[in-house]
Amino acid sequence: xxxxxxxxxxxxxxxxxxxxxxxxxxxxxxxMFWYRQDLGHGLRLIYYSAAADITDKGxxxxxxxxxxxxxxxxxxxxxxxxxSQTSVYFCASSAQVANTGELFFGEGSRLTVL
Amino acid sequence: ILNVxxxxxxxxxxxxxxxxxxxxxxxxxxxxxxxxxxxTAKSPEALFVMTLNGDEKKKGRISATLNTKEGYSYLxxxxxxxxxxxxxxxxxxxxxxxKLIFGTGTLLAVQP
Lengths: 114, 112
What we know:
The structure holds two protein chains of two kinds.
Chain A: E1 4-7, E2 10-13, E3 19-25, E4 31-38, E5 42-51, E6 54-57, E7 64-66, E8 76-78, E9 87-94, E10 104-105, E11 109-113
Parallel strand pairs in A: 2-11
Antiparallel strand pairs in A: 1-3, 3-8, 4-5, 4-9, 5-6, 7-8, 9-10, 9-11
Chain B: E1 5-7, E2 10-14, E3 19-24, E4 30-38, E5 45-50, E6 56-59, E7 62-67, E8 72-77, E9 86-94, E10 101-102, E11 106-111
Parallel strand pairs in B: 2-11
Antiparallel strand pairs in B: 1-3, 3-8, 4-5, 4-9, 6-7, 7-8, 9-10, 9-11
């Protein structure tokens, strides 16, 4: 089905391990975003991308790396996972410039770091 | 840093009550204000995207207004129903960076 999909949906890992969360969208949207959801904080922006090969930091980028070699994919990597990165991660995409277009969200990836 | 504030944090109302929430944001460098509805165990879904001062948008029993000069938006729900129970998020795009920053949301619980 067309849309935006995230994988894995659930992941348990250990402190210090590298983890990559995948995000794929089939709409050819220019803009893609990674947010994390934590109690009391709502959705916080980690990284976003305006187009292939263009990425920029959000509110909480430390400890994360992103890439966007293809328009449809926007993977998020935790290079050395920490317990504080236990969270639910949401990927989103949008078609329009300067965010006049709505975001479409994936189903979320729940990550637990032991 | 864009500071988006929502109030109240949570709200309990009876079925049939009308209610409203507030989203406050810095009025400088305004590009767009979004409202999303987020049901438990689901993903956020867009309600409105508003860009012009004085904008009013409506979808069924839900409507929103925007005041960019004073930096606030109101979301109204008329005749709340139990299925309206959700977290309502606003998000601001301020400036040309294309970042979309969310508030912490208002959790609405509608009692039958």
